[in-house]
Protein backbone atom coordinates (compact mmCIF):
# COMPACT_ATOMS: atom_id res chain seq x y z
CA UNK A 1 0.00 0.00 0.00
CA UNK A 2 2.95 2.34 0.71
CA UNK A 3 3.94 2.79 -2.95
CA UNK A 4 0.33 3.58 -3.82
CA UNK A 5 0.10 6.27 -1.14
CA UNK A 6 3.48 7.67 -2.16
CA UNK A 7 2.38 7.92 -5.78
CA UNK A 8 -0.98 9.40 -4.77
CA UNK A 9 0.70 12.12 -2.71
CA UNK A 10 2.98 13.11 -5.60
CA UNK A 11 0.02 13.27 -7.97
CA UNK A 12 -2.10 15.19 -5.49
CA UNK A 13 0.71 17.71 -4.97
CA UNK A 14 0.60 18.33 -8.70
CA UNK A 15 -3.10 18.08 -9.59
CA UNK A 16 -4.72 19.18 -6.31
CA UNK A 17 -8.51 18.89 -6.21
CA UNK A 18 -8.64 18.13 -9.92
CA UNK A 19 -7.60 14.62 -8.97
CA UNK A 20 -10.67 14.28 -6.76
CA UNK A 21 -12.96 15.70 -9.48
CA UNK A 22 -11.64 13.06 -11.84
CA UNK A 23 -12.18 10.38 -9.26
CA UNK A 24 -15.75 11.61 -8.84
CA UNK A 25 -16.21 11.40 -12.61
CA UNK A 26 -15.04 7.80 -12.43
CA UNK A 27 -17.58 7.09 -9.68
CA UNK A 28 -20.34 8.46 -11.93
CA UNK A 29 -19.20 6.30 -14.81
CA UNK A 30 -19.23 3.33 -12.53
CA UNK A 31 -22.75 4.14 -11.32
CA UNK A 32 -24.00 4.50 -14.88
CA UNK A 33 -22.30 1.23 -15.70
CA UNK A 34 -24.18 -0.40 -12.82
CA UNK A 35 -27.52 1.07 -13.91
CA UNK A 36 -26.93 -0.11 -17.47
CA UNK A 37 -26.29 -3.53 -16.09
CA UNK A 38 -29.43 -3.59 -14.01
CA UNK A 39 -31.43 -2.58 -17.06
CA UNK A 40 -30.44 -5.83 -18.66
CA UNK A 41 -32.52 -7.65 -16.10
CA UNK A 42 -35.94 -6.66 -17.50
CA UNK A 43 -34.59 -7.33 -20.98
CA UNK A 44 -33.62 -10.84 -19.92
CA UNK A 45 -36.96 -11.38 -18.22
CA UNK A 46 -38.71 -10.17 -21.40
CA UNK A 47 -36.99 -12.94 -23.26
CA UNK A 48 -38.76 -15.34 -20.95
CA UNK A 49 -35.58 -17.33 -20.20
CA UNK A 50 -35.58 -16.41 -16.56
CA UNK A 51 -38.41 -15.28 -14.34
CA UNK A 52 -37.51 -13.80 -11.00
CA UNK A 53 -41.02 -13.78 -9.57
CA UNK A 54 -41.82 -16.13 -6.75
CA UNK A 55 -38.28 -16.55 -5.40
CA UNK A 56 -37.80 -15.45 -1.86
CA UNK A 57 -34.53 -13.50 -1.54
CA UNK A 58 -33.43 -9.86 -1.48
CA UNK A 59 -31.96 -10.37 -4.90
CA UNK A 60 -35.06 -11.78 -6.47
CA UNK A 61 -37.27 -9.14 -4.86
CA UNK A 62 -35.06 -6.35 -6.28
CA UNK A 63 -34.82 -8.07 -9.62
CA UNK A 64 -38.51 -8.68 -9.84
CA UNK A 65 -39.14 -5.01 -8.93
CA UNK A 66 -36.80 -3.81 -11.65
CA UNK A 67 -38.38 -6.23 -14.06
CA UNK A 68 -41.75 -4.57 -13.51
CA UNK A 69 -40.62 -0.92 -14.02
CA UNK A 70 -40.84 -0.81 -17.82
CA UNK A 71 -44.41 -2.12 -17.79
CA UNK A 72 -45.51 1.21 -16.35
CA UNK A 73 -43.71 3.20 -19.06
CA UNK A 74 -44.44 1.33 -22.20
CA UNK A 75 -42.49 -1.91 -22.26
CA UNK A 76 -39.36 -3.04 -24.03
CA UNK A 77 -38.98 0.04 -26.29
CA UNK A 78 -38.68 2.32 -23.28
CA UNK A 79 -36.16 0.15 -21.54
CA UNK A 80 -34.02 -0.17 -24.66
CA UNK A 81 -34.07 3.60 -25.29
CA UNK A 82 -33.08 4.16 -21.67
CA UNK A 83 -30.33 1.60 -22.05
CA UNK A 84 -28.93 3.43 -25.09
CA UNK A 85 -29.17 6.86 -23.40
CA UNK A 86 -27.39 5.65 -20.30
CA UNK A 87 -24.69 4.11 -22.45
CA UNK A 88 -24.22 7.34 -24.38
CA UNK A 89 -23.97 9.32 -21.14
CA UNK A 90 -21.54 6.81 -19.71
CA UNK A 91 -19.31 6.93 -22.78
CA UNK A 92 -19.38 10.73 -22.91
CA UNK A 93 -18.28 10.81 -19.30
CA UNK A 94 -15.71 8.15 -19.98
CA UNK A 95 -14.25 10.24 -22.80
CA UNK A 96 -14.10 13.34 -20.63
CA UNK A 97 -12.45 11.49 -17.76
CA UNK A 98 -9.97 9.78 -20.10
CA UNK A 99 -8.92 13.15 -21.53
CA UNK A 100 -8.65 14.66 -18.06
CA UNK A 101 -6.63 11.68 -16.88
CA UNK A 102 -4.22 12.09 -19.78
CA UNK A 103 -3.96 15.78 -18.89
CA UNK A 104 -2.98 14.79 -15.38
CA UNK A 105 -0.58 12.11 -16.66
CA UNK A 106 1.30 14.33 -19.11
CA UNK A 107 0.88 17.46 -17.02
CA UNK A 108 2.48 15.67 -14.07
CA UNK A 109 5.41 14.54 -16.22
CA UNK A 110 5.76 18.00 -17.76
CA UNK A 111 5.68 19.71 -14.38
CA UNK A 112 8.30 17.31 -13.00
CA UNK A 113 10.41 17.87 -16.12
CA UNK A 114 10.22 21.68 -15.88
CA UNK A 115 10.81 21.72 -12.13
CA UNK A 116 13.80 19.44 -12.36
CA UNK A 117 15.32 21.26 -15.33
CA UNK A 118 15.05 24.55 -13.49
CA UNK A 119 16.46 23.02 -10.31
CA UNK A 120 19.32 21.53 -12.32
CA UNK A 121 20.14 24.93 -13.82
CA UNK A 122 20.06 26.48 -10.37
CA UNK A 123 22.13 23.78 -8.69
CA UNK A 124 25.70 24.54 -7.71
CA UNK A 125 28.80 23.17 -9.41
CA UNK A 126 29.55 20.73 -6.55
CA UNK A 127 26.30 18.93 -7.40
CA UNK A 128 27.64 18.17 -10.90
CA UNK A 129 31.13 17.28 -9.75
CA UNK A 130 29.69 14.50 -7.56
CA UNK A 131 27.48 12.91 -10.22
CA UNK A 132 27.81 11.08 -13.50
CA UNK A 133 26.26 13.23 -16.21
CA UNK A 134 24.73 10.17 -17.86
CA UNK A 135 22.89 9.31 -14.60
CA UNK A 136 21.29 12.73 -14.56
CA UNK A 137 20.33 12.36 -18.24
CA UNK A 138 18.94 8.87 -17.65
CA UNK A 139 16.76 9.99 -14.75
CA UNK A 140 15.67 13.05 -16.64
CA UNK A 141 14.65 11.13 -19.78
CA UNK A 142 14.14 7.36 -19.41
CA UNK A 143 13.07 7.30 -15.76
CA UNK A 144 10.72 10.22 -16.26
CA UNK A 145 9.20 8.36 -19.23
CA UNK A 146 8.57 5.37 -16.99
CA UNK A 147 6.95 7.61 -14.39
CA UNK A 148 4.64 9.05 -17.04
CA UNK A 149 3.56 5.57 -18.17
CA UNK A 150 3.21 4.56 -14.51
CA UNK A 151 0.91 7.53 -13.84
CA UNK A 152 -1.47 6.21 -16.45
CA UNK A 153 -1.48 2.78 -14.79
CA UNK A 154 -1.95 4.44 -11.44
CA UNK A 155 -5.03 6.37 -12.55
CA UNK A 156 -6.47 3.22 -14.08
CA UNK A 157 -5.76 1.46 -10.83
CA UNK A 158 -7.64 4.06 -8.80
CA UNK A 159 -10.53 3.82 -11.27
CA UNK A 160 -10.52 0.06 -10.82
CA UNK A 161 -10.59 0.41 -7.05
CA UNK A 162 -13.55 2.81 -7.21
CA UNK A 163 -15.44 0.63 -9.72
CA UNK A 164 -14.80 -2.40 -7.61
CA UNK A 165 -15.93 -0.72 -4.40
CA UNK A 166 -19.20 0.42 -5.95
CA UNK A 167 -19.81 -2.95 -7.51
CA UNK A 168 -19.03 -4.64 -4.22
CA UNK A 169 -21.68 -2.50 -2.51
CA UNK A 170 -24.26 -3.36 -5.19
CA UNK A 171 -23.25 -7.00 -5.17
CA UNK A 172 -23.39 -7.08 -1.37
CA UNK A 173 -26.88 -5.65 -1.45
CA UNK A 174 -27.98 -8.28 -3.93
CA UNK A 175 -26.25 -11.20 -2.31
CA UNK A 176 -24.05 -10.79 0.76
CA UNK A 177 -23.07 -14.47 0.76
CA UNK A 178 -21.68 -14.58 -2.77
CA UNK A 179 -19.97 -11.20 -2.40
CA UNK A 180 -18.29 -12.18 0.85
CA UNK A 181 -17.13 -15.38 -0.77
CA UNK A 182 -15.61 -13.47 -3.71
CA UNK A 183 -14.00 -10.91 -1.42
CA UNK A 184 -12.57 -13.47 0.96
CA UNK A 185 -11.17 -15.45 -1.97
CA UNK A 186 -9.65 -12.25 -3.33
CA UNK A 187 -8.18 -11.41 0.06
CA UNK A 188 -6.51 -14.82 0.51
CA UNK A 189 -5.18 -14.70 -3.01
CA UNK A 190 -3.79 -11.21 -2.47
CA UNK A 191 -1.86 -12.40 0.61
CA UNK A 192 -0.43 -15.18 -1.51
CA UNK A 193 0.41 -12.75 -4.31
CA UNK A 194 2.27 -10.16 -2.22
CA UNK A 195 5.44 -11.88 -3.31
CA UNK A 196 4.64 -10.93 -6.90
CA UNK A 197 4.44 -7.26 -5.99
CA UNK A 198 7.73 -7.39 -4.10
CA UNK A 199 9.44 -9.08 -7.02
CA UNK A 200 7.99 -6.51 -9.41
CA UNK A 201 9.52 -3.75 -7.31
CA UNK A 202 12.91 -5.44 -7.31
CA UNK A 203 12.66 -5.84 -11.07
CA UNK A 204 11.79 -2.14 -11.32
CA UNK A 205 14.98 -1.27 -9.43
CA UNK A 206 16.95 -3.48 -11.75
CA UNK A 207 15.41 -1.78 -14.79
CA UNK A 208 16.60 1.58 -13.42
CA UNK A 209 20.06 0.20 -12.72
CA UNK A 210 20.43 -1.35 -16.18
CA UNK A 211 19.12 1.83 -17.83
CA UNK A 212 21.75 3.84 -15.97
CA UNK A 213 24.61 1.49 -16.91
CA UNK A 214 23.46 1.42 -20.52
CA UNK A 215 23.40 5.19 -20.90
CA UNK A 216 26.68 5.65 -19.02
CA UNK A 217 28.40 3.03 -21.21
CA UNK A 218 26.98 4.35 -24.45
CA UNK A 219 27.91 7.94 -23.59
CA UNK A 220 31.47 6.84 -22.80
CA UNK A 221 31.55 4.83 -26.02
CA UNK A 222 30.61 7.66 -28.32
CA UNK A 223 32.63 10.29 -26.45
CA UNK A 224 35.66 8.04 -26.61
CA UNK A 225 35.16 6.70 -30.15
CA UNK A 226 38.56 8.04 -31.24
CA UNK A 227 40.31 6.16 -28.40
CA UNK A 228 38.25 3.03 -29.13
CA UNK A 229 39.27 3.05 -32.79
CA UNK A 230 42.88 4.00 -32.29
CA UNK A 231 43.39 1.42 -29.52
CA UNK A 232 41.31 -1.28 -31.32
CA UNK A 233 38.91 -1.63 -28.40
CA UNK A 234 35.94 -2.53 -30.63
CA UNK A 235 35.78 -6.18 -29.49
CA UNK A 236 35.71 -5.38 -25.80
CA UNK A 237 33.08 -2.67 -26.32
CA UNK A 238 30.97 -5.11 -28.36
CA UNK A 239 31.28 -7.70 -25.57
CA UNK A 240 30.10 -5.12 -23.05
CA UNK A 241 27.15 -4.17 -25.24
CA UNK A 242 26.19 -7.78 -25.84
CA UNK A 243 26.24 -8.49 -22.13
CA UNK A 244 24.10 -5.47 -21.21
CA UNK A 245 21.67 -6.24 -24.04
CA UNK A 246 21.35 -9.78 -22.68
CA UNK A 247 20.62 -8.37 -19.21
CA UNK A 248 17.92 -6.13 -20.66
CA UNK A 249 16.39 -9.08 -22.51
CA UNK A 250 16.49 -11.31 -19.41
CA UNK A 251 14.95 -8.63 -17.29
CA UNK A 252 12.08 -8.06 -19.73
CA UNK A 253 11.48 -11.81 -19.95
CA UNK A 254 11.51 -12.14 -16.18
CA UNK A 255 8.99 -9.32 -15.85
CA UNK A 256 6.67 -10.87 -18.43
CA UNK A 257 7.00 -14.32 -16.82
CA UNK A 258 6.14 -12.80 -13.47
CA UNK A 259 3.18 -10.84 -14.79
CA UNK A 260 1.70 -13.75 -16.73
CA UNK A 261 2.25 -16.12 -13.77
CA UNK A 262 0.20 -14.02 -11.39
CA UNK A 263 -2.54 -13.53 -13.99
CA UNK A 264 -2.51 -17.27 -14.68
CA UNK A 265 -3.02 -18.08 -10.98
CA UNK A 266 -5.87 -15.62 -10.73
CA UNK A 267 -7.63 -17.00 -13.78
CA UNK A 268 -7.27 -20.60 -12.64
CA UNK A 269 -8.51 -19.60 -9.19
CA UNK A 270 -11.44 -17.88 -10.84
CA UNK A 271 -12.47 -21.05 -12.71
CA UNK A 272 -12.20 -23.11 -9.52
CA UNK A 273 -14.13 -20.59 -7.47
CA UNK A 274 -17.02 -20.36 -9.93
CA UNK A 275 -17.21 -24.13 -10.19
CA UNK A 276 -17.08 -24.63 -6.40
CA UNK A 277 -19.60 -21.92 -5.74
CA UNK A 278 -22.13 -23.07 -8.29
CA UNK A 279 -21.72 -26.64 -7.05
CA UNK A 280 -22.30 -25.57 -3.43
CA UNK A 281 -25.21 -23.29 -4.35
CA UNK A 282 -27.03 -25.90 -6.35
CA UNK A 283 -26.34 -28.95 -4.20
CA UNK A 284 -26.36 -27.49 -0.71
CA UNK A 285 -28.49 -24.40 -0.89
CA UNK A 286 -30.83 -25.38 -3.72
CA UNK A 287 -30.14 -22.10 -5.50
CA UNK A 288 -32.76 -20.84 -7.81
CA UNK A 289 -32.47 -19.19 -11.22
CA UNK A 290 -32.06 -15.63 -9.89
CA UNK A 291 -29.26 -16.63 -7.55
CA UNK A 292 -27.42 -18.54 -10.22
CA UNK A 293 -27.70 -15.54 -12.53
CA UNK A 294 -26.25 -13.42 -9.77
CA UNK A 295 -23.37 -15.78 -9.14
CA UNK A 296 -22.44 -15.59 -12.80
CA UNK A 297 -22.91 -11.79 -13.00
CA UNK A 298 -20.97 -11.04 -9.84
CA UNK A 299 -18.15 -13.42 -10.60
CA UNK A 300 -17.77 -12.34 -14.18
CA UNK A 301 -17.86 -8.64 -13.35
CA UNK A 302 -16.15 -8.50 -9.99
CA UNK A 303 -13.41 -11.06 -10.35
CA UNK A 304 -11.67 -9.50 -13.39
CA UNK A 305 -11.48 -6.29 -11.40
CA UNK A 306 -9.73 -8.06 -8.53
CA UNK A 307 -7.32 -9.55 -11.08
CA UNK A 308 -6.84 -6.13 -12.73
CA UNK A 309 -6.01 -4.55 -9.38
CA UNK A 310 -3.33 -7.16 -8.81
CA UNK A 311 -1.81 -6.51 -12.27
CA UNK A 312 -1.86 -2.73 -11.71
CA UNK A 313 -0.24 -3.10 -8.29
CA UNK A 314 2.60 -5.07 -9.85
CA UNK A 315 3.09 -2.43 -12.52
CA UNK A 316 2.97 0.43 -10.00
CA UNK A 317 5.50 -1.38 -7.82
CA UNK A 318 7.80 -1.68 -10.84
CA UNK A 319 7.45 2.08 -11.51
CA UNK A 320 8.16 3.19 -7.95
CA UNK A 321 11.99 2.96 -8.22
CA UNK A 322 11.83 5.24 -11.29
CA UNK A 323 9.56 7.70 -9.47
CA UNK A 324 11.87 7.65 -6.46
CA UNK A 325 14.95 8.37 -8.54
CA UNK A 326 13.13 11.25 -10.28
CA UNK A 327 12.01 12.68 -6.92
CA UNK A 328 15.53 12.22 -5.50
CA UNK A 329 17.06 14.10 -8.41
CA UNK A 330 14.53 16.86 -7.85
CA UNK A 331 15.21 17.06 -4.10
CA UNK A 332 18.98 16.80 -4.41
CA UNK A 333 19.23 19.45 -7.11
CA UNK A 334 16.94 21.70 -5.09
CA UNK A 335 19.05 21.21 -1.97
CA UNK A 336 22.13 22.18 -4.01
CA UNK A 337 20.50 25.39 -5.23
CA UNK A 338 22.92 28.29 -5.51
CA UNK A 339 20.68 30.79 -7.27
CA UNK A 340 17.26 31.74 -6.01
CA UNK A 341 16.15 32.93 -9.44
CA UNK A 342 17.93 33.36 -12.69
CA UNK A 343 16.40 36.56 -13.99
CA UNK A 344 19.78 37.53 -15.42
CA UNK A 345 18.29 40.30 -17.60
CA UNK A 346 17.95 42.70 -14.69
CA UNK A 347 21.24 41.81 -13.09
CA UNK A 348 24.05 44.21 -13.92
CA UNK A 349 27.65 43.04 -14.10
CA UNK A 350 29.71 43.96 -11.07
CA UNK A 351 32.20 46.77 -11.53
CA UNK A 352 35.40 45.93 -9.66
CA UNK A 353 37.31 49.10 -8.88
CA UNK A 354 39.97 47.95 -6.41
CA UNK A 355 40.54 44.25 -6.68
CA UNK A 356 39.70 40.65 -5.86
CA UNK A 357 41.08 38.99 -2.78
CA UNK A 358 41.37 35.38 -1.61
CA UNK A 359 41.62 35.64 2.14
CA UNK A 360 42.95 32.69 4.09
CA UNK A 361 41.20 30.22 1.80
CA UNK A 362 41.06 26.48 2.59
CA UNK A 363 39.29 24.00 0.34
CA UNK A 364 38.81 20.21 0.25
CA UNK A 365 36.92 18.25 -2.42
CA UNK A 366 36.13 15.57 0.13
CA UNK A 367 35.59 16.94 3.60
CA UNK A 368 35.91 13.43 5.06
CA UNK A 369 39.55 13.21 3.97
CA UNK A 370 42.41 15.33 5.20
CA UNK A 371 43.54 16.26 1.69
CA UNK A 372 43.39 19.97 0.96
CA UNK A 373 43.26 21.13 -2.66
CA UNK A 374 43.93 24.66 -1.36
CA UNK A 375 45.53 25.54 1.96
CA UNK A 376 45.84 28.98 3.55
CA UNK A 377 45.72 30.80 0.22
CA UNK A 378 46.12 34.58 0.50
CA UNK A 379 46.35 36.48 -2.74
CA UNK A 380 45.23 39.84 -4.09
CA UNK A 381 44.38 40.49 -7.76
CA UNK A 382 44.38 44.26 -8.31
CA UNK A 383 41.73 45.51 -10.75
CA UNK A 384 42.80 45.94 -14.38
CA UNK A 385 46.08 44.07 -13.89
CA UNK A 386 47.24 40.83 -15.41
CA UNK A 387 47.99 37.94 -13.04
CA UNK A 388 49.31 34.50 -13.90
CA UNK A 389 48.87 31.36 -11.81
CA UNK A 390 51.50 28.68 -12.40
CA UNK A 391 52.50 25.40 -10.80
CA UNK A 392 52.87 21.70 -11.50
CA UNK A 393 49.95 19.61 -12.61
CA UNK A 394 47.56 19.03 -9.68
CA UNK A 395 48.90 22.04 -7.76
CA UNK A 396 45.41 23.54 -7.39
CA UNK A 397 45.34 26.17 -10.15
CA UNK A 398 41.90 25.28 -11.59
CA UNK A 399 40.54 24.82 -8.08
CA UNK A 400 41.58 28.37 -7.24
CA UNK A 401 39.87 29.69 -10.37
CA UNK A 402 36.68 27.72 -9.57
CA UNK A 403 36.61 29.31 -6.12
CA UNK A 404 37.20 32.77 -7.57
CA UNK A 405 34.23 32.31 -9.88
CA UNK A 406 32.04 31.10 -7.01
CA UNK A 407 31.67 27.62 -8.57
CA UNK A 408 33.03 26.08 -5.38
CA UNK A 409 33.08 27.70 -1.97
CA UNK A 410 35.94 27.95 0.51
CA UNK A 411 35.66 25.68 3.51
CA UNK A 412 37.39 28.42 5.51
CA UNK A 413 38.22 31.98 4.52
CA UNK A 414 36.53 33.95 1.77
CA UNK A 415 36.62 35.67 -1.60
CA UNK A 416 36.36 39.45 -1.30
CA UNK A 417 35.31 41.67 -4.19
CA UNK A 418 36.34 45.24 -3.51
CA UNK A 419 36.27 44.19 0.13
CA UNK A 420 32.76 42.65 -0.02
CA UNK A 421 32.36 38.93 0.58
CA UNK A 422 31.26 36.83 -2.41
CA UNK A 423 27.90 35.32 -1.39
CA UNK A 424 24.73 33.98 -3.02
CA UNK A 425 23.41 37.54 -3.23
CA UNK A 426 26.14 39.00 -5.42
CA UNK A 427 27.08 35.76 -7.19
CA UNK A 428 25.13 36.34 -10.39
CA UNK A 429 26.23 39.92 -10.76
CA UNK A 430 29.83 38.74 -10.18
CA UNK A 431 29.58 36.00 -12.79
CA UNK A 432 28.12 38.45 -15.31
CA UNK A 433 31.33 40.43 -15.13
CA UNK A 434 33.54 37.40 -15.86
CA UNK A 435 34.38 35.71 -19.13
CA UNK A 436 35.94 32.33 -18.64
CA UNK A 437 37.80 30.20 -21.15
CA UNK A 438 38.28 26.69 -19.70
CA UNK A 439 40.95 24.09 -20.44
CA UNK A 440 38.52 22.06 -22.47
CA UNK A 441 36.34 24.69 -24.12
CA UNK A 442 32.77 23.85 -25.04
CA UNK A 443 31.16 24.74 -28.34
CA UNK A 444 27.55 24.06 -29.31
CA UNK A 445 26.71 21.98 -32.36
CA UNK A 446 25.56 24.89 -34.47
CA UNK A 447 27.05 27.73 -36.57
CA UNK A 448 29.97 29.94 -35.57
CA UNK A 449 27.62 32.91 -35.52
CA UNK A 450 25.25 31.26 -33.05
CA UNK A 451 28.10 30.09 -30.87
CA UNK A 452 29.30 33.66 -30.60
CA UNK A 453 25.96 35.43 -30.24
CA UNK A 454 24.86 33.00 -27.54
CA UNK A 455 26.92 35.07 -25.14
CA UNK A 456 25.97 38.45 -26.57
CA UNK A 457 22.74 38.15 -28.60
CA UNK A 458 22.69 41.81 -29.61
CA UNK A 459 26.26 41.84 -30.96
CA UNK A 460 26.55 43.39 -34.44
CA UNK A 461 28.33 41.79 -37.40
CA UNK A 462 31.14 44.26 -36.89
CA UNK A 463 31.53 43.34 -33.22
CA UNK A 464 31.59 39.64 -34.12
CA UNK A 465 34.48 40.18 -36.57
CA UNK A 466 36.27 42.43 -34.11
CA UNK A 467 36.17 39.69 -31.46
CA UNK A 468 37.32 37.10 -34.02
CA UNK A 469 40.19 39.36 -35.02
CA UNK A 470 41.23 39.80 -31.41
CA UNK A 471 41.38 36.03 -30.99
CA UNK A 472 43.30 35.61 -34.29
CA UNK A 473 40.35 33.62 -35.60
CA UNK A 474 39.16 35.94 -38.37
CA UNK A 475 41.41 34.43 -41.06
CA UNK A 476 40.27 30.84 -40.64
CA UNK A 477 36.59 31.83 -40.36
CA UNK A 478 36.86 33.85 -43.60
CA UNK A 479 38.29 30.81 -45.34
CA UNK A 480 35.35 28.58 -44.42
CA UNK A 481 32.86 28.26 -47.35
CA UNK A 482 29.99 29.70 -45.31
CA UNK A 483 32.04 31.99 -43.07
CA UNK A 484 30.22 32.86 -39.85
CA UNK A 485 27.34 30.62 -40.87
CA UNK A 486 29.43 27.44 -41.07
CA UNK A 487 28.35 24.55 -38.87
CA UNK A 488 31.13 23.32 -36.60
CA UNK A 489 29.82 19.87 -35.59
CA UNK A 490 29.45 18.21 -32.20
CA UNK A 491 31.51 20.20 -29.66
CA UNK A 492 33.19 21.87 -32.67
CA UNK A 493 34.61 18.56 -33.99
CA UNK A 494 35.04 20.00 -37.52
CA UNK A 495 37.60 22.51 -36.23
CA UNK A 496 41.17 21.95 -35.09
CA UNK A 497 41.99 22.20 -31.36
CA UNK A 498 43.65 25.59 -31.89
CA UNK A 499 40.73 26.91 -33.95
CA UNK A 500 38.33 25.84 -31.23
CA UNK A 501 40.39 27.65 -28.59
CA UNK A 502 40.51 30.83 -30.66
CA UNK A 503 36.76 30.73 -31.23
CA UNK A 504 36.05 30.34 -27.53
CA UNK A 505 38.43 33.18 -26.80
CA UNK A 506 36.57 35.37 -29.31
CA UNK A 507 33.32 34.42 -27.60
CA UNK A 508 34.75 35.37 -24.22
CA UNK A 509 35.94 38.75 -25.39
CA UNK A 510 32.68 39.56 -27.17
CA UNK A 511 31.03 40.03 -23.82
CA UNK A 512 33.45 42.84 -22.97
CA UNK A 513 34.01 41.42 -19.50
CA UNK A 514 35.70 43.29 -16.69
CA UNK A 515 37.46 40.06 -15.67
CA UNK A 516 38.90 37.64 -18.20
CA UNK A 517 39.92 34.21 -16.90
CA UNK A 518 41.95 31.97 -19.17
CA UNK A 519 42.63 28.42 -17.98
CA UNK A 520 45.29 27.01 -20.31
CA UNK A 521 43.42 28.81 -23.06
CA UNK A 522 46.31 28.95 -25.52
CA UNK A 523 47.80 25.50 -24.99
CA UNK A 524 46.73 24.18 -28.42
CA UNK A 525 47.99 27.16 -30.39
CA UNK A 526 51.04 27.30 -32.63
CA UNK A 527 53.68 29.91 -31.89
CA UNK A 528 52.39 32.31 -34.52
CA UNK A 529 48.82 32.39 -33.22
CA UNK A 530 49.96 32.36 -29.61
CA UNK A 531 52.07 35.48 -30.26
CA UNK A 532 49.04 37.16 -31.87
CA UNK A 533 46.94 36.44 -28.80
CA UNK A 534 49.69 37.53 -26.45
CA UNK A 535 49.84 40.85 -28.28
CA UNK A 536 46.06 41.18 -28.13
CA UNK A 537 46.08 40.49 -24.40
CA UNK A 538 48.78 43.08 -24.06
CA UNK A 539 46.40 45.59 -25.67
CA UNK A 540 43.73 44.63 -23.14
CA UNK A 541 46.05 45.23 -20.22
CA UNK A 542 44.81 48.05 -18.06
CA UNK A 543 41.29 47.77 -19.51
CA UNK A 544 40.23 44.62 -17.66
CA UNK A 545 41.48 42.26 -14.98
CA UNK A 546 43.11 39.25 -16.57
CA UNK A 547 43.89 36.00 -14.73
CA UNK A 548 45.77 33.40 -16.73
CA UNK A 549 46.69 29.83 -15.88
CA UNK A 550 49.57 28.77 -18.06
CA UNK A 551 51.94 25.84 -18.33
CA UNK A 552 53.97 27.51 -21.07
CA UNK A 553 55.69 30.16 -19.03
CA UNK A 554 56.72 32.19 -22.10
CA UNK A 555 53.08 33.25 -22.46
CA UNK A 556 52.97 35.06 -19.14
CA UNK A 557 56.12 37.12 -19.54
CA UNK A 558 54.09 40.35 -19.43
CA UNK A 559 52.04 39.52 -16.35
CA UNK A 560 52.04 42.10 -13.56
CA UNK A 561 52.01 39.35 -10.95
CA UNK A 562 52.92 35.67 -10.97
CA UNK A 563 51.55 33.30 -8.32
CA UNK A 564 53.24 29.94 -7.90
CA UNK A 565 51.13 27.18 -6.37
CA UNK A 566 52.42 23.89 -5.04
CA UNK A 567 50.23 21.22 -3.45
CA UNK A 568 47.49 23.74 -2.78
CA UNK A 569 49.75 26.36 -1.19
CA UNK A 570 51.15 29.60 -2.57
CA UNK A 571 54.90 29.25 -2.38
CA UNK A 572 55.98 32.25 -4.46
CA UNK A 573 54.38 35.52 -5.50
CA UNK A 574 55.81 38.48 -7.39
CA UNK A 575 56.80 39.87 -10.78
CA UNK A 576 57.98 37.54 -13.54
CA UNK A 577 61.57 38.78 -13.55
CA UNK A 578 61.83 38.85 -9.78
CA UNK A 579 60.66 35.22 -9.47
CA UNK A 580 62.84 34.14 -12.37
CA UNK A 581 65.84 35.48 -10.50
CA UNK A 582 65.09 33.65 -7.25
CA UNK A 583 67.56 30.86 -7.93
CA UNK A 584 66.20 28.36 -5.42
CA UNK A 585 62.56 29.06 -6.13
CA UNK A 586 60.22 26.68 -7.88
CA UNK A 587 59.47 29.24 -10.60
CA UNK A 588 63.11 29.41 -11.60
CA UNK A 589 63.17 25.64 -11.60
CA UNK A 590 60.08 25.41 -13.82
CA UNK A 591 61.56 27.99 -16.21
CA UNK A 592 64.84 26.07 -16.49
CA UNK A 593 63.06 22.80 -17.22
CA UNK A 594 60.98 24.41 -19.96
CA UNK A 595 64.06 25.99 -21.52
CA UNK A 596 65.83 22.61 -21.50
CA UNK A 597 62.85 21.03 -23.25
CA UNK A 598 62.62 23.75 -25.87
CA UNK A 599 66.34 23.43 -26.64
N1 LIG B 1 36.40 16.97 -8.72
C1 LIG B 1 37.43 16.63 -7.96
N2 LIG B 1 37.26 15.75 -6.96
C2 LIG B 1 38.28 15.40 -6.16
N3 LIG B 1 39.53 15.90 -6.28
C3 LIG B 1 39.76 16.78 -7.25
C4 LIG B 1 38.73 17.19 -8.15
N4 LIG B 1 39.26 18.08 -9.02
C5 LIG B 1 40.56 18.21 -8.69
N5 LIG B 1 40.86 17.43 -7.63
C6 LIG B 1 42.17 17.32 -6.97
O1 LIG B 1 42.55 18.61 -6.48
C7 LIG B 1 43.89 18.86 -6.74
C8 LIG B 1 44.06 20.15 -7.53
O2 LIG B 1 43.50 19.96 -8.83
P1 LIG B 1 43.45 21.12 -9.91
O3 LIG B 1 42.62 20.63 -11.03
O4 LIG B 1 43.07 22.38 -9.24
O5 LIG B 1 44.97 21.16 -10.34
P2 LIG B 1 45.66 22.02 -11.48
O6 LIG B 1 46.81 22.71 -10.86
O7 LIG B 1 44.64 22.85 -12.18
O8 LIG B 1 46.18 20.84 -12.43
P3 LIG B 1 46.36 20.82 -14.02
O9 LIG B 1 47.46 21.77 -14.35
O10 LIG B 1 46.77 19.40 -14.28
O11 LIG B 1 45.06 21.20 -14.61
C9 LIG B 1 44.45 17.65 -7.45
O12 LIG B 1 45.13 16.84 -6.51
C10 LIG B 1 43.23 16.92 -7.97
O13 LIG B 1 43.42 15.54 -7.95
TrEMBL record:
Subcellular location(s) per record: Cell membrane
Keywords in alphabetical order: ATP-binding, Membrane, Nucleotide-binding, Transmembrane, Transmembrane helix, Transport
Gene Ontology CC annotation, any one: cytoplasm
Residue ranges occupied by any ABC transmembrane type-1 domain in the UniProt entry: 23-318
Molecular function as annotated in GO: ABC-type oligopeptide transporter activity; ATP binding; ATP hydrolysis activity
Domain ABC transporter: start-end pairs: 356-592
Transmembrane spans: 21-49, 69-89, 154-174, 180-197, 264-282
Membrane topology: Multi-pass membrane protein
InterPro entries attached to this UniProt entry: AAA+_ATPase, ABC1_TM_dom, ABC1_TM_sf, ABC_transporter-like_ATP-bd, ABC_transporter-like_CS, P-loop_NTPase, Type_1_exporter
Entries under PANTHER family matching the protein: ATP-BINDING CASSETTE SUB-FAMILY B MEMBER 10, MITOCHONDRIAL (PTHR43394:SF1), ATP-DEPENDENT PERMEASE MDL1, MITOCHONDRIAL (PTHR43394)
The protein's name in its UniProt record: ABC transporter ATP-binding protein
Amino acid sequence: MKPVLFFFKQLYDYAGNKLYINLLGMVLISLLDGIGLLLLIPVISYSGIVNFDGENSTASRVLSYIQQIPEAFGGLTFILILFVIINIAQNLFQRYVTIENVKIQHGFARSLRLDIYKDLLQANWAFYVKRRKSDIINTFTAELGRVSAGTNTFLQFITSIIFTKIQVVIAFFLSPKITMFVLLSGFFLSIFSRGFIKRSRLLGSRTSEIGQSLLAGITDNFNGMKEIKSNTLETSRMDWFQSISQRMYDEQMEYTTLKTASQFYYKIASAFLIAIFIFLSVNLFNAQAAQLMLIIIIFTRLWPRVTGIQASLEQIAATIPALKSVINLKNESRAARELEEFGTKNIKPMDIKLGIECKNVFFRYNTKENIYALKEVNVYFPANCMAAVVGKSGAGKSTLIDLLMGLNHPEKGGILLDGTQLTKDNLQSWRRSISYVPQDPFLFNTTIRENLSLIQPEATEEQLWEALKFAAADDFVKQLPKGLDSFIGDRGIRLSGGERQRLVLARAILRKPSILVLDEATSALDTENETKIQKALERLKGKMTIIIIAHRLSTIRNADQVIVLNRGEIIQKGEFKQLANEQRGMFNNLLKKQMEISL
